[in-house]
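Lecture 7, part B: from sequences to assemblies.

Below are the input chains for today's worked example.
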Amino acid sequence: MDSEDDLLQKCITSAMPKQR
Amino acid sequence: PTPPYLKWAESLHSLLDDQDGTNLFRSFLCQEGCEDLVDFWFACSGFRQTSQDKRAKLAKVIYRKYIVDGSGIVSRTIKAATKSFIRDCVGKPHLDPAMFEQAQTEIQAMMEENTYPLFLKSDLYLEYT
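Predicted structure of the full complex, as structure tokens:
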């Protein structure tokens, strides 16, 4: 995974709901 | 208490507020070949919270991945005016954290009218319930 994909993936994950 | 899967049927927001709901909805969208819709929606939310030093790079990545290629589902869904607004924003030195907000609203409206009702009728959701 290159750094751009990584940046995007982190951004998406950070906004997703966390486990109940 | 109301089981989570019944809450998912109340609104798209209730679904996207829940981790299992989000995962199941994303699996459904993968089957339909349009998981970019929900990924983009969360990317827009994440972008607003991203620190200023990473914002310029991230804006370019989001723009390149979802918007510049006109054949993708996100690009086909959002309005031409919204796309040009984002294109103009991407090159600016100080980026507005809300620059993807209009695009996110348009994608959300499309999911509410289209993929979300289909998800609630899908085998994937019915099997889960």
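Note for the exam: Residues 3-15 of chain A form the longest helix (13 residues). Keep this in mind when comparing with the next example.
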